[in-house]
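pls read this protein:
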Amino acid sequence: MKQNRRKFNPEFKTKVVLEALSERLTLTELAQKYELHPNQITLWKREFLDRASEVFSKSDKAQKAEQDSKQETEELYKTIGQLKVEVDWLKKKTSVVKTLSERRSMIEKEHPKISLNRQCELLSIHRSGCIISHGEARS
């Protein structure tokens, strides 16, 4: 009959390794106490000591992930700000459904934050209906 493999959680491994490092009991005694093979304890102990310095320093992956997260957050805040400006502008311009000529008259050529093309999109006007030549808006 096949015997299932035992799985040990990190807390248990840490407890065993710390006891092994304290050297109060021999490796054989610890192995008997926790029903493990002495080689397993030695392996955990070696891994623990090899990776101990990671506890006190951020890994490159963690730093990169943190930096990426900050950059993504900044981009999202920028997008949220732009969308808020557009929604406020649209609310101001379209309190009721208006005709095409009325919507064209709402376009502000010199708006500081919303481009002419985006204004056309928000007002549901085809871009060619907004622009004559050289970027001039129809009136």
Q: What stands out?
A: The chain has two domains: 10-50, 77-139. Residues 77-139 form one domain. Residues 60-93 form the longest helix (34 residues).
